[in-house]
Amino acid sequence: MLRTDLPEIITETLPGPKAQAIIDRREAVNPSAIKCIYPVVIEKGEGAMIQDVDGNKFLDWIGGVGVLNIGFSHPEVVEAVKAQAEKYFHGMYNVVTHEGYVALSEKLAQIAPVKGDKKKVFFANSGAEADENAVKIAKAFTKRPNIIVFSGAFHGRTLMTMSMTSKKAYAVGMGPFPDGVYRAQFPYYYRNPAGMPQEAALDYYLDSIKAVFEQCGPADTIAAIVVEPLQGEGGFIPAPIEWIKAVRKICDENGILLVADEVQTGFCRTGRMFATNYWEESGVQPDILATAKSIAAGVPLSAIVAREEIMEASAPGTIGGTFCGNALACAAALKTIEIMERDDIAGRSCEIGEKVSKRFNEWKEKYPVIGDVRGLGGMIGLEFVKDQKTKEPYPEFSAAVIKGCAQKGLMIEGAGTYGNVIRFLAPLVMTDEQLEAGLDIYESVIKELLEK
């Protein structure tokens, strides 16, 4: 029954006694840099629900940070992985061909909104690996050394992707970093420079790209511009369509490849199979798409998709790896995509997003600590401020909301350059009753904090 249950806390305190014992063991043997603020030790998960080792039930609106768009333990994915496991777990793709890798590549080549007629695909294991490989093949194709990334960006924790990631709290003590990673301003319209009229904002953000050409590396040295269609860690900020059209034009005029980092936005999260489907509807396609997270419902896998001429530019041995395109992961991904298409999970994402956005905007009118509501489909950010006019960030309040919700059985997570955004990444298979229960908990915590 866990799949349709509601949050229920049965222990007097959180963590409960069994969970606390395991958390104590964790602290003794795992590095504290792998931070966890939640009082939860999972025993099982189904749909959007977690049951911990003490029997407490939590509604999970984090979903493994966007990994569980079809929820925990989808029975059809479980069966697909079991069936594959009975044949073999692994065969390195450089050594033996397995059909799952081929079939999944064919499927992604069919559905990924990437520029070009004939597309090719290869797999890695994580989002960071996908982004890094996208940069590698962009450099191989263009024969250029540099890339442009953006303020607010998060691309991973490898040495290369740490350098691409904007917030250097994720890279403390890890330098020096690779050269040739240049940063422009992402269009964060809610926080345009003071006094700037909205009609001037587009040119302001485009000028920051042109400033890179002048101050860091000429356009003919830039291999790729790497963009999240909707920034994740940066604060759930969608890339405006008018901006992405202009970026595509800059790329085309200068022989630069446009890379879409769809690690978090892919697989129905934003109301389309990929967030770049929105770009495609406006006549824009990326040259390379990197994606991961919900591709395989929790089994580690990531993918890189590009047209044939880009993919074939890489020298033998420069891409791939031991576990890339693992057989169990490919089986999980094929079944996950089948479920998403059959059950219209993208449509459900839009439906959930409309309900959540409506409620969030009502809160914005009632509670002065809410500054902005934004997102696409079921990927929505709520930005907390000390004052709606000054927009001063209020990270202390958002942290208190996260902690208070966890104590009532709702798990939500923060984001944002200033640590003042709470992201909505709930599994898209949750029930309407669970959605309403979560929103009620969320609002009750905001009200209680304001009344203190």
TrEMBL record:
Catalytic activity as recorded in UniProt: 4-aminobutanoate + 2-oxoglutarate = succinate semialdehyde + L-glutamate; (S)-3-amino-2-methylpropanoate + 2-oxoglutarate = 2-methyl-3-oxopropanoate + L-glutamate
Family matches, as Pfam families: Aminotran_3
Protein's pathway: Amino-acid degradation; 4-aminobutanoate degradation
UniProt key word Amino-acid biosynthesis: no
MF annotations from Gene Ontology: 4-aminobutyrate:2-oxoglutarate transaminase activity
EC number(s) per entry: 2.6.1.19, 2.6.1.22
PROSITE patterns for this protein: AA_TRANSFER_CLASS_3 (PS00600)
CDD domains on file: OAT_like (cd00610)
Domain of life: Bacteria
Cofactor list: pyridoxal 5'-phosphate
Keywords: Aminotransferase, Pyridoxal phosphate, Transferase
Similarity remark: Belongs to the class-III pyridoxal-phosphate-dependent aminotransferase family.
PANTHER family the UniProt entry points to: AMINOTRANSFERASE CLASS III, LEUCINE_METHIONINE RACEMASE
Record protein name field: (S)-3-amino-2-methylpropionate transaminase
Organism: Anaerostipes amylophilus
Gene that produces this protein: gabT
